[in-house]
């Protein structure tokens, strides 16, 4: 991929009609897609990208279920009920975000916000590893290639 991840996020926003998180776009900056995929600190951002690129529902659900295994049992059971009933348009990345909130609450509730925030970020980072275990980078590369063909995107020459 010759274009930057920031350009990819904007392209997906333009083509798919759903804006990317501003913080995600800012974080991605001029990193390559590969660097973004392997160093992204948030599972919800990875899932958003995978969903926008058209990764299969089955693979996405496996990744989300894997992430939910890291959440406390009460949070996990509550979110799994929705996963089984809701249609795929239900935001899976918000489930992962909710699971990370639950994990942070279990670890740091009653402590300072700073400690809770650290626990929340750690949960999302651990869940990002799970997403990468289920959705391999080769799949993301393939989907970007398909998107380029579908929308006739011209690559810049080096």
What are the salient characteristics of this protein?
9 helices, 0% strand, 158 residues, mainly alpha, 73% helix
Description of the molecule:
73% of the residues lie in helices and 0% in strands. α7 (92-108) packs across α8 (113-134). The protein is globular. The protein has one domain (5-150). Mean pLDDT is 76; it is low at 86-90. It has helices at 5-16, 22-28, 33-39, 43-53, 57-68, 73-85, 92-108, 113-134, 137-150. The longest helix has 22 residues, at 113-134. The protein is mostly helical and 158 residues long. The protein has nine helices and no strands.
Give a short overview.
The chain has 158 residues and is mostly helical. It contains 9 helices and no strands.
**Share in helix:** over 70%
User: What's the helix-strand series?
Assistant: HHHHHHHHH
Main sheet summary: none
**What gap, in angstroms, lies between the N and C termini?**
11 Å
Number of strands: 0
- Overall form: globular
The total of helices stands at: 9
Radius of gyration: 16 Å
What does the average pLDDT come to?
76
Oligomeric state, counting identical vs distinct chains: single chain
Poorly predicted runs? 86-90
Given the helix and strand composition, which structural class is it? Answer: mainly alpha
């Amino acid at each position: 991929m010759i274009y930057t991840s920031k350009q990819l996020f904007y392209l997906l926003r333009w083509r798919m009609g759903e804006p990317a998180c501003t913080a995600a776009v800012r974080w991605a900056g001029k990193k390559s897609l590969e660097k973004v995929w392997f160093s992204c600190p948030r599972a919800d951002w990875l899932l958003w990208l995978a969903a926008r690129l058209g990764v299969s529902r089955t693979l996405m659900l496996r990744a989300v279920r894997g992430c939910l295994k890291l959440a406390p049992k009460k949070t996990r059971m509550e979110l799994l009920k929705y996963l089984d009933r809701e249609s795929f348009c239900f935001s899976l990345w918000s489930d992962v975000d909710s699971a990370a909130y639950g994990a942070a609450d279990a670890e740091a509730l009653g402590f300072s916000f700073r400690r809770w925030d650290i626990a929340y970020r750690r949960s999302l980072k651990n869940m990002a590893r799970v997403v990468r275990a289920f959705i391999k980078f080769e799949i993301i590369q393939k989907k970007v290639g398909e998107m380029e063909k579908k929308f006739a995107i011209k690559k810049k020459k080096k």
